[in-house]
Amino acid sequence: MTNDCKRLFILDTNVLMHDPMALFNFAEHDIFLSMTVLEELDAGKKGMSEVSRNVRETNRLIDQIISNASFEEIKAGLSLERIHPNPNQEELILGKLFFETEPLAVDLPDSLPSHKADNHILQTGLALKEKYNNRNVTLVTKDINMRIKSSAVGLHSEDYFNDRVLEDADLLYTGWEYLEENFFETHGSSMKSWQEGSRTFYELEADKQCKWFPNQGLISQNDAGFNAIVRKVSHGKATLEYMEEFRSPNNSIWGITARNAEQNIALNYLMDPDIDFVSILGIAGTGKTLLTLAAALEQTLDQNLYNEIIMTRATIPVGEDIGFLPGTEEEKMTPWMGALMDNLEVLTDSDGYTDWEKESTQQLLSKRIKIKSMNFMRGRTFQKKFIILDEAQNLTPKQMKTLVTRAGEGTKVVCLGNIGQIDSPYLTETTTGLTYVVDRFKHWGHSAHITLQQGERSRLAEFASDNL
Does some domain include residue 208? Predict the structure, then answer.
C-alpha cells in the first residue's frame, strides 16, 4: 500500500452480501477484506435465498481475482481491473484488493469482546488505521450499530451508497405534473392538432428546458380541463394525446370509475395496450389494486387482449411469521393475497345478480386468475398475460429484474407498491427495486408511472393516514 492519496476501504460482510459488485465500485481506491469477512461469507454460501446467491457470486469473483496469484502477490495487493465486468470501459482505473495476510490487532475496550466477528473487524480496522496513519482508512458497512460502534472506538465509517438509485426518495419521478395556468396562452399559437380515429393529438414546441418524459401525465389547473399524456419529445417538438376520461359513469371499467385526476391517468396507462410496463405508487387507500384489477378483468375477460391474469407478491410478513403453510402453490400464496381478493370481491359483488350468477362469475374468474409464488418464477416466460406484482417495494433491484424479464410477447406487467411501507429489513426507500425500476424505465416509450397521492378508501382511512 504505497499510494498515500488513495483511500483504504474495509468492507463489512453485509456489503458483499448485498452487492457482490461492490468490489468494483470504489474507483481507484483500495479495498481490504479481513479473515472474519471471508469466514462469514463461507458460512452464508448455503441456501437458495437472495443473500446466499450474492455470497456465492462474491466468492466466485474473489476466486477469479486470487487465481494463480502467489502469496507475495496477494500480500502486495491484487489488481481489480483484470476481471472487471466491463474491461473495455474507457479510463477504467481501479485500486487493489488486500487480504489479512498477517495478524492485525489492537486493544479494544473491555466492553467489546474480541471473540465477536463484528468486533474483530473493528479491531482490524483500528490496526490498519494505526499502521497506515497517512491514509484515510474507512469501514464500509450497512449495519447501523456497527457504524455507531466504529465511531465510538475512533474508526471512521460510512454506509454503502452505491446501491442508492436516488439521493432522496422525494426526488423520485411522480409520472405527472400540473400545467401552468397560462399554458394555452404560451403555446396556443404554435400548437397543431389532429385526429387519428377517436384519438386526438397535439404537437407543440419543446425547448431545452422541457423535462417531460414519454407517457407522462399532464393535468390542467384551470377550467379548460385539458388533461393529456406526453407521447413523444424529440427534435424540439412534444407530441401530446388528449387523455381518455374514465371519471364518467358511461366510461367505467368493470363498474369502476376514476375518482380523481391521478386515478384517471392510472386507468389511461392500464388500459393502453401499447404500454407494456406500468408502475403505480401510492399510500394505502389510493386505489392502486382496485384500478389494476378492474383494468385486468376488462382486458382479459371482455376484450381478450390477455389470456390470463397472474398475481404475485413478495411474501414478507408485517409481524411474526406464521410458519409453513399447507397445500398447493396457489393455496400457500392465498393468505398473502388478501388485498387482491378483497378488491376482487368489490368488482364482482354487483347488485341485482342471483347467488347462482355470482357463483358462476367466481368460477370463471378462478380459471382466468392465477396466483403464483415468486420463488418459482426464474426461467419462466409468460405470453399474453396480465401480470400484477403487488407489494413490489419489498423487492430488491435484482429480484425486480428477474420478474420483469419473465414477460413474453403481448404481456403487460404492473408493479404496485408504497415505498413508505417497506417490510424488508435490507431495503430503504432509495434502494428498493420499485424505486430502481421507476427511475430506469421513465425514458422508455412503452412504460408509464404514476404516484397516487389522494386517498379514496374512506374518510377514516384518509384521516388515519394523515394523522397517525
Answer: yes
